[in-house]
Protein 1
Amino acid sequence: MRTVHRYTVLPTLPDRLSCLRDLAYNLRWTWNHDTVDLFAGLGGDLWRESRFNPVLMLRRISQERLDRAAEDEAFLAQLDRVCVQFRAYLADAGRFHARHPEASHLSVAYFCMEFGLAECLPIYSGGLGVLAGDHLKAASGLGLPLVGVGLLYQKGYFTQYLSSDGWQLERYPINDFATLPIRPAVLADGSPVVVHVDLAGRSVAVKVWVAQVGRIPLYLLDTNLPENDPADQDVTDELYGGGPEERIRQEIVLGIGGMRALDALGIAPSVCHMNEGHSAFLSLERVRTLMAKEGLDYRTARQASGAGTLFTSHTPVPAGFDLFPRALMEKYFGDYVKELGLSLDELLQKGRVHQEDQTEDFNVAALAVRHSPRRNAVSRLHRRVTAHMMQEAWPGFPLEEVPVESVTNGVLMRGWVSGEMSRLFDRYMGPRWQEDPADSEVWARVDAIPDEELWRTHVRQRERLVSYTRAQLVAQAERRRASRREIDVAKEALTSDALTIGFARRFATYKRATLLLREVERLKAILLGEHRPVQLIFSGKAHPRDDAGKDLIRQIVHFAAEEGLQHRIVFLEDYDLAKARELVRGVDVWLNTPRRPMEASGTSGMKVVPNGGLNLSVLDGWWVEGYRPDVGWAIGTGEEYADTEYQDRVESQALYSLLEQEVIPLFYERSTDGLPRGWIHMMKSSIRHLGPAFSAARMVGEYAERFYIPAADHNRAMVADGYAKARSLAVWKTRVRDAWSQVSVVSVESDRAGEVAVGSLLSVEAHVRLGSLEPGDVKVEAYSGVLTPDGQLGGGHATSLAWVAQNGDAHVYRGAIACDVSGARGFAVRVLPEREGVLIPHELVLVTWE
């Protein structure tokens, strides 16, 4: 067999166009319309054929086209303008340090299993990744000192296509890293960054790549290296593929390998943000590193590293967290635990909800919680759900005191808004809507946009969506070798002037994609209204092993075909960022029907807001906070049901009624000039109120102010003076734990019994035994609240009692409860540990009640 020597012929970029290379390798173009217009104008059809990938486009474009562009005065003027803006953006430090000069020591590492940055970089599957991508982009806009850490998948997530029967099938195309907007990370001497992790006794090499996201570097880890065994090369092969062993190997590379990559790059983050539990093993690596470099014991190293760790959960059910059996943990951590000075059983305890239950599998979320004194959910309702899930780990604490907070998700508004709508905002709202998108005063200027201009812009976006959808449907039909009749039907699907409703997201059963299909005749009457037609566009992927989710897709396809509704109901295959942009820009209404409270936050509905779309959703996730009658519609009033069949029946009826009685009439009610004035008023109200509240800039700013800066301050205090504070706190926590069984509330007295007048004070005196502890080790509180029918306290509030004396072996504490609210109320006295620098009950789960 003859030997073939491979080589690649590439066009040469003329010197005059050299800036194109810098623009292509910085993902700022994903949210900068001028840069996208530049590449689209240069590449023409090749821009779309390359899946909007400027790196691939510049490799495939003809030399003749480049040479012609280098002499095109109009193109060069456009290029110069974009490059000047690009360099000015990178040179500007952003607003963060100007607003927070006290945070000069802050350095954040943001870890996530997936990042949705661009459709040409397929290292994401859905909402979690897109949220993480917007987090980096917003951090870039703020000038936040942050780096991202993730995995670089050889296949990434699957591409979806449907069989002729409507069943989801999957392909796994191989990514060519040379054509992606990434580069190998290098050291100062130009050598590539490669680190090693141990996987079941084998040293596995991990190469580090970097994707530049504006001012933010995202470091991506890759095990597909020739020096690794074939099985180890496949660790970063596929996103969310395989079983528990494949997952634990990936999570070791992400968490442990990610920390080692940062160390090799000379990056020492003061704060590590674990976005979901997949990167939980980084908490162990931070401890191990401190033990090795600083000579600390496990408890001290954990105290120091935990001070700068944040864990964000996006999961509404315990089953959403990865679980690993003992045998798997022993295989991959049997040697690692020795470096931590722990036994395997001690490590396993740290990953169990019930630490003494040896039958429990190791839960990465439990590990993340125990090594992260700061933790948050991603909406207010999700905070309640998460607190319920975590309550067993905080026995003795009321639900409202379970230590988890919430930061509601947001999206990068300028990344999702259309270019035409963006220019409209620039003209009437000024540039600050892009520069400071969390400022509500800026968004209030939407009222200055003339109704006609706003409506015509939105109508053009809908027209483009219809044209795009028809082209996609034709391509889908041709791929599966459909008949000429089916292709002709695809060409005529939808109309450009009908009320258009979008439903696009992951096809999980709890999202209830088929809720609208329950009553055939009622739905047909809605869709086929002679003068008020409605059309539905569905898109989304089910997990490859989720047959129930796949069946929802099949039901939609069959329903449209069997009822002759292919011109009113369509399904777009292979939902990705490109399709998401087209949909959120062109639909009139975004439909969301999760089974409350299963939607942790959701962000897809936020993306229609700056494009003039309105939300019609169950009151779940972010919509609980966003809904008001003048910005959209709510399905139900926040009910939660035990009987899911009954829930589906009730909420589908509510959905039909909303469409028939409110949504459709408002859309088609036109003034004498042909404008739907009521609808436009709601569009403006939605943009004005929801735009700043659900922007990624607001979200990232909230993370910075509520978590990153305090965590960095806490971390700095732990590190100071040779980790003196960390050492003393570790000793103190051990002493308190050992002595806590001696703590008891001996007696409680109050100066009043029975009825108390509103506005008065209720005096309380408690006698408390502390054993070997000192009064400075604890705080004593009267916890008061509403007395529920079962005699428990609800909605409680803690009032501190002050130490006044020691009486024999008991300490006397006194205070007064303010009686500001009438009704049946009660109080109970409790004792908690207390010391500066320790978050209670985040870090020390101890409480003694009367």
Protein 2
Amino acid sequence: MLNPVMKRRDFLATLPALPPALTASASAAPPASEIGGDFKLWYRKPAQKWVDGLPIGNGRLGAMVLGGVPEERIFLNEDTLWTGFPGPGGNDPNGPKYLADVRRLILQDKNYAAGETAAKKLQGPFTVSYEALGELHLKFDAAGPVTDYRLELDLDSALCNTSYRIENTIFRREALASYRDQVIALRLTAQALPGAAEPGAKLNFTVGLTSLLKSTAAAEGDTRLRMTAKAPARMDPDYLNSKNPVVYDDAAGHGMRCEALVDVKAEDGTVHADGAVLRVENATAVTLLVAAATGFRGFDKLPDLSADAIHARCVQTLDAAAKLSWPEIHKRHVHDYLPMFRRVSLRLGAGTDASGRSTDERVAEYASEPDPALAALYFHFGRYLLLSSSRPGTQPANLQGLWGDLLRPPWSSNYTTNINVEMNYWLAETCNLADCHEPLFQLTEELSRNGATTARVLYNLPGWVAHHNTDLWRLSNPVGAKSGDPRWANWPMCAPWLCEHLWEHYAFSGDLEFLRRRAWPLMKGAAEFLLGWLVEDGAGHLTTCPSISPENGFYLPDGTVVTVDAGCTMDLALIRELFGNCISATKLLGIEADFAQRLEAALKRLPPFRIGTQGQLLEYSQEFREPEPGHRHMSHLYTVYPSPLFTWNKTPEWMEAARKSLEIRLVNGGGYTGWSAAWVVNLRARLRDGDKAGLAVARLLKQSTRLNLLDTHPMGQGGFVFQIDGNFGGPAGIAEMLLQSHDGEITLLPALPSAWSEGSFSGLRARGGLTVSVDWVNGRATAAQLSAKRTADFTLRPPRAHKIAALRQGAESLAVHRNANGTVTVRLEAGTVTRVEFA
């Protein structure tokens, strides 16, 4: 079970000592030759911009490597480096009166425009911003033209490698982000070509540190370089046209202090201070280690650690790592990372050799030359990014994961909770990275504490609530400063969506202790708020008001565009799902039957979902005309994914209505952002339309993916910014195309595209504690294997046009119950491995 009490500040102390041999989990990881696949992103030239670099990370520390010659720029990040500090919160005590005004205007007067204006009074301050720590500069002495250049990111070992030749010398740089030793580590070597008549060149370069924050850098002795900085106390979001958007404050705790400390160790050469840089001369190899820390002490405490205290943390980390040789650092890093990455394998296509084409060439050619193996590489890249940006004890992945280079990043690089941060974790359970889910659970627990204050003060309600944005300090009020557009500011349904992740972790693991100790208190608190939030609609139903379908709007008869309604479909879906999961939890845990009865009574009074004149699932309480029928958000389709409210087995008529809604969105230009395109992949998979799901993957790769496979989001005037959510949502969708388990059965290859006629996967997880592997050729499954972690009854649905002939454990054939719909039900014991044979 995930540790329910582990705090970030002491998680390093909990790491066990690494044994000299491989750990048990590492020895259990299959070799790369057996898992198959394409695991390397590689390029023939350096990246010119930060957004085109290659990311490395250990969950807490991140770096973007550009691979430059003669200057290497490595951008550094630390996951607790945010602006601001915890404050009193933006909860207006007049909120209950404002809420009553909004409800009267919307529900009784039907004055939507006035209700929208009134909703702004509920708003409080904006979130703070995630900050870039700085840049590590390596400036090499000029030495001639560069040939044989290669920049590479090896996902299988989480190593970024740069190599090139100058005359008779091969220069190599390796970079990694060690979770075990909590440093960014680089190894630089210079080696003469084999058989060269002349000795090779040496490493001669300077090492410097800079930052966009107010900072100073200075050498500490001859082998260490220290940069100290402080983040602003206040920073307005990048989309606000503020006269004074960045404010520094020298007061203790008003702005985050931070530090980066570099250690440089040369072999066969020297290192010495040269002003504010270090200079390396005549070395054949150099090991460079970067430690970093901030003054963060917890979401509810001022970050008032002194610069000396932060420095002591960096020194302690760096001293420990500097005692290790490069082979030891490398080995400890790989032994930590590799077993987790190799839990899952995926091979798509007939094994076409793509080794001769660089990744940017493959991405550019994808439109004219479909490359299933590139889709598999993209899948693995998403898993790599989650492992690199979200580990136990760290902050969750934000809008840019862990990586950033700007003082005022897009949308503050915060946690946007009306889709984006949730999408970041869609792959965690299915793709066997449940431990990476832990930081989101920690955020939910912390957010619920501030959210309880917001519920009580702003709404005079029990339980806890949060809205569409949060940050390091777990802000829970509606943002907007009483002037924000309610389409994004006033959405109050974050809590049930985050609770869906808690329930999913239980559903996949069957961990009743996790459900009891961590999930249930948070789920109950969110449900208590919603019970109080529901209001009589005047027609015998309980509804929500104000209700916003995230970031979308509708026309009034006079042509006015508004956004605030009552009982939007997404609200009703989230409530139905949370209440249903809470009722199930009370039965599983044998607790609070009275509370479950209250939930059941409320469920019966919710408004029904609605179908429009085109047969589509309606997004709002009625069929309003839409200003953006191709809007990027598809919030009413939450009912299909990630929720299992609508399924082909139980609600086929609603699945058809949802399919129609999706088609209307797409024909009008929907799915045009990276994360929106990724959502389409998941929806197509749940609709079990394999070829359209495959086309959605292709669209995601062609339209919303940079040449380094990072996800993009349109940002005005034809420009794009990096936003990581699509990098997680896309791989989740690919997994959903291959395995589904949300409808009370395990479905094999439910949405396999004809373009992926051959392939295999292993290690994907199904709900109930099952790990699944499948091989297929010419679109037909040839083998499948089930590994049970729990003893339970499982219902298996074979791929379309298949029949399950037998289930075997070794030579023994298991007794199964064959159901009328083509599925089979079988009891599997914990620890067993079962082979599925198809007719």
Protein 3
Amino acid sequence: MLSNLTKAKTLEYLAPKLTEFVVPKSLSFTVSDFERDSSALCREVERVFGGSTVVVRSSAIDEDGSVNTLAGEYESVLGVSSGELNSISKAVNLVVDSYTQKENNDRNNEILVQKMISDISMSGVIFTHDLNTGAPYYVINYDDISGLTDTVTSGDSEHSNRTLYVCRDKLHFLNSERFQALLKAVRELENIIGSDFLDIEFALGEDLVPYLLQVRAITTQSIWNSTFSSSNFKDGLSSVEHILRECFKKTEGVLGSTTVLGQMPDWNPAEMIGRAPRALALSLYKKLITNQTWSISRGMMGYMEPKGHPLMMSLLGQPFIDTRLSFNSYLPIDLSLDIAERLVDTWVDRLKKNPELHDKVEFDVAITTYSFDIDQKLEELVGNAISQLEKEEFKAKLHKQTEKLIIGDGDYGVSRALEQIDLLSKIHAQASDYGDNDLSLSLMIKDCIELGTIPFSILARHGFIAQTLLLSLGRCGILSEHDIHCIQSSIKTVAGEFVDDMQYFGLGSISKETFMEKYGHLRPGTYDILSHRYDQMENLNPSIDSPAAGGYGLDKFHLSSQTLEKIDTLLDQEGFDNITASQLMTYIESAIQGREYSKFVFTRSVSDILERIAQIGESLHLTRDHLSHIPVDIFLDAIEDDCPDTRKSLMRIAEIEKSNHEISVAIRLPQILSDAAGAYVVPFQVSHPNFITRRKITAPCVLLDSRSETSILEGKIVIIENADPGFDWIFSQKIAGLITKYGGVNSHMAIRCAEFGIPAAIGCGEQKFEMLLKANQVLLDCPSGLINILH
């Protein structure tokens, strides 16, 4: 039915049949009618609408087809007074001109005039299935701030990026009265039209009355996966609901009455392996880091160690961090369990109430180290959850632990961790010692964990402590914001060396062989076997004109003697008798450098592991695509058993996991989960990016993914989803700025951009990222905290 009618005729047909939706009073006429007697038609508009405010909209014949749509292609004019004939005529002519500009000269095209609705509480667009996958969701893109009806369709408003996914057959989980009223009207509309593949533009009055502004068929069905199984989708969501109901309960041996699950807290898997990674990447991340490594390393550093509990769980292939476990592991081992329990509950509750902090838990939710603003943090992040006496105990334990970590005695210090990393680096230099038998893969993984990810985990925690201490010197008034920026920018990490070497490579000062020997293992998707390493890229062409690292950042920055004296005085006042200001600043520098260097080294192990898997797979006639769907432990067991039908069994696993991955991609889960209803009602969190530097730039933008090879990026704002270390090559090209979908204030790319003085928005979130995919030019205003799409 919809494919045979224009927008105007569709609304005219539906208006008398609907009881839940109200169709605003409307009038339509053809271009030919208007050209024949525009004055008469303008007077008719005045008569029908009695001088009230109207919207003059397009209603072209080619606008709303069954296989394609030209939504937004033609002009709409809001706020036209129907009592002013000149205004009506001008608005109609603007719509007609928009037809002509698009070379649509059919005189039977219509113009639709609708009464403009006042007292709008919400407006937007509803898709009755997911546009990209066809998954059975109601997808509601809405604006409940501006009071306008066209912000979502135009995409021009900062308020137009709110999105709610609701599973079609689970509406009883929806608690919102306004969305219940809206979806009740949508259900009636589906029944009348006889289709549940609709694209609906709506408005909702302050009285919760839904208004139907237009409806068309969804036109993306041809790109949906024909093998997608609705029953598998529903079964999958039911299993997620069951898992969630269990995990939010009290867990034996773990402090805290409940938890919050998130994709970005702690080891931020969404940033490293993506929202819905394939089986090999997900399982490798678990094996190397989140199964045991995370807790072993924190236990070595004097934190509580929740043994036997993996930090990350998989919900239908989507990775989530159990923040209750994180909060347990941020507490000193000798802290009273009663105090610890209440702290964990307080932080879980804080994250529930402030989900926008999901990528900032170490700084804005929990207290994970002693700092010079500890009393202020206790007030902000603990409040009355524990008594003043208990706060003093907590402070004392943190003080003792932090002092030991800064001094660095034992296996938990920066120096000892770096020794382990250096040993792994030497093993890399003698990689041939592993041999080429299948059993070598297990040894490579063992070395990566013991000499790579465990010391890296320790150094990463030191990096958080260093950053926290540095920022607290600012909050105490000893360091200015400029001082902190200069310190961060002048810390030369391995990324600075990389940018220098990239330039020397471009100039011919070092050979390609020398460059690749050091950096060839890097890949933009560290855990993705389908992502090319640098030494596999045909077009890794450094820009000769790009400056070395010094051109981005600053020369070595030294604090004045007066500032160092103030820090010494503060250290004495805080009871750090064995630490001087110079020692503290050295610790901060070495911790940040060590974190980045250790990541650089251990990711070579990860890269070599993936290549070894690819080599073994090739001998079994398995492609990288097949291997990407095989969990690492299943692969290890299969090759170690060496059965005659190894290839056949692995292919069967790959096919099953590929099907599971298709479901994983189609299922939408919120970035933060705090109840079982989150399996079915999915509000996308409006993220607050972490802005780096105080610069403001306007520049063209370019989108890269983990399988993109090099291109000319100079002067452009680079947009990436996962802020993986393998993207470091972009810093060799004097980029104008960086925007990432995922990432926290202390994430890899945040540190890189601070080091090089590059304006960045790290972790802009799902909605803003989706809008940026269509952008050509962007304003990145770091001081004001704004990302504006210009065109």
